[in-house]
């Protein structure tokens, strides 16, 4: 899967990326969350789709996108989704970067518990243009053997081969989401 490429004016100003261009790959989201699962994949794909819609005319501007989630932070997987979206967009909650000389602030751009029809909303700060998305993980069914492999692999007596078989099945599911269904409107729904 190609990376999500953004322009980050703060990174450019501070010399972290000479031209301000930064690319994010799914592996970056995995490193951030510490795992690879359908939720992390869905968050990555929702962010990718939203930025493509909002910035069809050029590179997305990291730090200039507000991200709002319908679920409260402590409910379900909202924190994981927000973390992935925040990584790529630069949006941060109250603990985020306050800015430098009145510019580049990211604090308050990531919000939870916001009423909306979709699951997550991305809004360009400069234009106010927004897009809402919903992730439908059931669009890519679990592999038939996954449940029994999970049960076997999570027992204290499970051997290396059993744990490996589960992990391979699990990651095969995630790969199917990311590769075969990356642009599937049944998986990632953009509000009209």
Can you put this structure into words, describing what you see?
The structure is a single chain. This protein has 192 residues and is α/β, with parallel strands linked by helices. It has one domain. The protein is 37% helix and 17% strand. The chain has helices at 9-13, 26-33, 38-54, 78-89, 146-153, 160-180, and strands at residues 4-8, 21-24, 61-62, 65-69, 110-111, 120-124, 130-135, 188-190. The chain is globular. The two termini are 25 Å apart.
Task: Provide the fold topology.
Layout: E1 4-8, H1 9-13, E2 21-24, H2 26-33, H3 38-54, E3 61-62, E4 65-69, H4 78-89, E5 110-111, E6 120-124, E7 130-135, H5 146-153, H6 160-180, E8 188-190
Parallel strand pairs: 1-3, 4-5
Antiparallel strand pairs: 1-2, 4-6, 6-7, 7-8
Helix pairs in contact: 3-4, 3-6, 5-6
Short description, anyone?
By secondary structure, this protein is an alpha/beta fold.
């Amino acid at each position: 899967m190609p990376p999500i490429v953004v322009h980050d004016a703060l990174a450019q100003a501070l010399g972290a990326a000479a031209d301000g261009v930064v690319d994010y790959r799914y592996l970056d989201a995995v490193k951030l969350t510490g795992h690879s699962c359908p939720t992390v994949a869905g968050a990555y794909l929702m962010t990718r789709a939203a930025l493509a819609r909002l910035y069809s005319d050029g590179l997305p501007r990291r730090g200039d996108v507000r991200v709002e989630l319908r679920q409260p932070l402590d409910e379900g997987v909202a924190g994981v989704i927000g973390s992935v979206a925040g990584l790529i967009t630069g949006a941060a909650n109250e603990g985020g970067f306050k800015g430098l000389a009145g510019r580049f602030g990211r604090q308050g751009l990531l919000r939870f518990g916001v009423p909306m029809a979709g699951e997550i909303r991305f809004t360009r700060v400069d234009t106010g243009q927004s897009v809402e998305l919903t992730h439908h993980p059931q669009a890519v069914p679990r592999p038939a053997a996954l449940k029994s492999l999970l049960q076997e692999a999570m027992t204290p007596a499970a051997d290396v081969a059993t744990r490996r078989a589960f992990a391979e099945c699990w990651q095969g599911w995630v790969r199917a989401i990311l590769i075969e269904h990356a642009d599937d409107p049944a998986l990632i729904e953009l509000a009209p």
